[in-house]
Amino acid sequence: MNAIDASTMTGAAGEHLVMSRLLSRGYIAALAPQGVPNFDIVVTSVDGTQLCAFQVKTRWDKGSDGGWHMRQKHEELTNPRIFYCFVDLGKHASNAAEIYVIPSPIVANVIRTSHATWLSNPGARGQKRNDSNIRRLLPDYTKLMGPQTPYVAGWLNRYHENWDQIASITQPAPQLEERT
């Protein structure tokens, strides 16, 4: 039997956590089939006439910059009905996870702007940087973009567990009664 790699388990944990948050708020949500390129979860209104989708990015708090891996394709994803859920699982499985719900046009702009800034600045030895497909969504861009950037430490706070922003796209079902 093949071992499942840690990144697969981390991704699945994030997707199921986001599903839990959506379902507990009364949204009708389902995991998209594996391999769908732009989203992981689909949410629909009760009558099925309104849809939105979520791309889930999950990380453990192990890196030095506190960010999430992104790719060049994320610069182009600007559909107002697609949201990202950036899940931070913390340092240990016992930590409370945090989720940042950000509209795709915002993410595309941040990724595009920060990468262009990175490319325009010289490397550690003064050399011109080579372009790549790799991008990072960071909780603080001041080191890269300076203190004038709108993406200073705390810029993600307005998106922390901000599920209300999807209510205008797809209303949740009536709240379920708590079971004892």
UniProtKB/TrEMBL annotation:
Gene Ontology molecular function: any one: nucleic acid binding
Official protein name in the record: PD(D/E)XK endonuclease domain-containing protein
Source species: Paracoccus sulfuroxidans
InterPro entries from the UniProt entry: tRNA_endonuc-like_dom_sf (IPR011856)
